[in-house]
Specification:
Blueprint (H helix, E strand, L loop, with lengths): L1 H6 L1 H21 L12 E7 L5 H16 L5 E8 L4 E8 L5 H15 L5 H6 L2 E5 L3 E9 L4 H17 L4 E6 L5 E7 L1 H7 L3 H11 L7 E2 L12 E2 L9 H5 L2 E4 L5 E3 H4 E7 L7 E2 L2 E2 L1 E7 L5 H16 L6 E8 L1 H30 L2 H24 L6 H31 L4 H27 L1
Antiparallel strand pairs: 1-3, 1-4, 2-3, 5-15, 5-16, 6-15, 7-12, 8-9, 10-11, 13-14
Helix pairs in contact: 2-13, 3-4, 6-11, 12-13, 12-14, 13-14, 14-15
């Protein structure tokens, strides 16, 4: 087989050129990431039961959901976490290769089956089912010298997240420990006992009076008298200030007296959840997790994210700034740089060793030409097998450089030996060399490849 290529040098050259072209085209399209995508897809089910303990949530919310979700197609295991802050998180892991979209649909169908058995408050707040991307790309953070974390979190939710999720290559972007604005009602137990009220009575009054109503219209058909206009009635919607909440009527008497929420409680605009906090360089901050879309190029995506953040920062309020304390692409960039350094060192060593020991310029240039052909062609094989450019495949390229250099030196050294000892021409020496060392070259290469695999 080797003699076929030796006898047809033009055909061999064409094959080498095609290998380089195929590898170059594959290199442009290969995804770049820190690690290969070997983590099983995860679907997260989240529910909230405010005021409930972890034990209550586990029995009343987690148990029905787990019973229905268990056994969904391609599921390998499930993890459930209930907290005393009133939150439930169920993480369902699926076999590698499972379509996350289809898995989300399957889990959501099971969740819908369990909804009738959940508490009313949980159903009103909703049960969230979404696919979680485990391939985190970077974590930008927002900080400010004039705003608190609640304001920062709300600003990031309204002005930053929507811009980030629209970037090509970004699979998802979310706030870590989002502190959404919420109206918090702090009850006075002594006052409740004095007026014979319970927290359930207060919650019922809030739900009844803090609602959006359709008030209808004036002058709509059918009417007896002719009217020139029809007016839609606009009413005040849901309450939006602490003072408005404190005016909610809890009880009223025939004489016109009333008991209001402000008499037994205090309302304030605060965060929905205070269970999470983050600091960067000792200052409060709001971290934003940016996750990479499967198959996306991490380097180009990270560059696009930074450009978007630069554009958004021009519109930040005074005192607000962003930083990126964690970026996985830095490791990838360093690894790619090290591969180029290794390639240059290997090429220099090949030239030096071959020329010193063989004293022949032509014999020196042949191994140098073999290195880029084999390395660039490797990218075509990577794309064919569905690999990406990551730390492991870059390590494999470094190993391949050593294999190519060793094999090229072995072949050229044996050709020169046969030309001097047996007085053979270059073609005959190449044919006999491949007959002598081809088995050793192939076997040593396979051993190194098996060790790496």
């Amino acid at each position: 087989m080797f003699r076929f290529f030796i006898d047809r040098p033009i055909f061999s050259s064409v094959i080498s050129i095609l290998i380089v072209i195929a590898g170059g085209m594959s290199l442009v399209n290969l995804p770049v990431e820190q690690y290969p995508d070997v983590v099983p897809p995860e679907i997260v089910v989240e529910a909230a039961y405010p005021g409930a303990s972890a034990e209550v949530i586990s029995e009343a919310v987690a148990a029905p959901l787990e019973q229905e979700i268990n056994g969904v197609n391609n599921m390998i295991y499930m993890e459930s976490t209930s907290t005393d802050s009133g939150f439930l998180s169920i993480t369902v892991s699926f076999a590698t290769g499972t379509d996350p979209d289809q898995a989300t649909i399957d889990v959501n169908n099971r969740v819908q089956t369990a909804l009738p058995r959940l508490p009313q408050l949980v159903r009103e707040l909703g049960v969230r089912v979404e696919a979680r991307s485990t391939n985190i790309l970077m974590v930008p953070t927002l900080s400010s010298t004039r705003h608190d974390t609640l304001s920062l979190s709300n600003y990031a939710l309204l002005n930053v997240l929507d811009e980030l999720v629209r970037i090509p290559g970004v699979g998802n972007a979310s706030l870590f420990g989002a502190q959404d604005y919420s109206m918090r009602v702090w009850l006075n137990p002594d006052k409740l006992a004095e007026f014979g009220l319970t927290p359930t009575d207060v919650a019922g009054a809030i739900r009844e009076q803090n609602a959006q109503y359709a008030a209808g219209s004036i002058g709509a058909e059918p009417i007896t008298a002719k009217k020139a206009f029809t007016f839609a009635i606009s009413t005040d919607g849901q309450l939006d200030t602490p003072e408005a909440f404190e005016r909610i009527i809890l009880r009223s008497l025939d004489d016109g007296s009333s008991l209001r929420l402000g008499d037994v409680a205090r309302a304030e605009l605060g965060a929905q959840n205070y269970a999470f906090s983050a600091t960067n360089n000792g200052e409060p901050t709001v971290p934003i997790g940016v996750f990479l879309e499967p198959g996306a190029n991490a380097l180009s995506t990270a560059t696009a994210v930074r450009q978007t953040l630069d554009e958004l920062s021009s519109r930040f309020p005074d005192g607000m700034s962003y930083s990126v304390p964690y970026d996985t692409t830095e490791f990838v960039e360093v690894s790619i740089r090290e591969v180029f350094i290794t390639l240059l060192i290997a090429t220099g060593l090949v030239v030096l060793v071959t020329f010193i020991f063989l004293q022949h310029l032509r014999a020196t240039l042949i191994p140098v030409a073999a290195i880029p052909v084999s390395l660039i062609g490797t990218f075509a094989g990577m794309q064919a097998f569905g690999f990406s450019i990551n730390l492991l495949t870059l390590f494999g390229l470094v190993l391949a450089i050593g294999i190519v250099v060793d094999n090229a030196i072995i072949v050229m050294e044996n050709v020169e030996r046969l030309m001097h000892e047996k007085k053979l021409n270059a073609r005959d020496a190449a044919v006999e060399t491949m007959q002598q060392v081809s088995g050793a070259v192939v076997s040593s290469t396979l051993v190194l490849v098996s060790v790496f695999a």
